[in-house]
Fold this protein.
Amino acid sequence: MSRPVRVIVLNTDESFATPVRAHLLSIDSVKIVAEVEEPALLTTALEQFPAEVVFVHLDPDPEGLLQVAGLACRQRPELAVFALASAADGPLVLSAMRAGLREFLTKP
């Protein structure tokens, strides 16, 4: 059996924490190794918990969270950083890709 994909979730929206956690935990090959509510603590979480993927929920502060996510991309280029947001307007998606994020997902 292969090792599960280790995920760190950066989410500042408490109302979205339970649904995103439930969805990720429903996938057999995914293991959440850390949930970070404070963007400034993402770097610390990356140092403490080995992970292959970081999910960054961009709502409600896309600009600030993209800065933190972009820093993680530059510090750990092997890390897959995915953005998750309620809106997928062109400028936001372009900003995410320019920051180094690999995927942009919209909430259903």
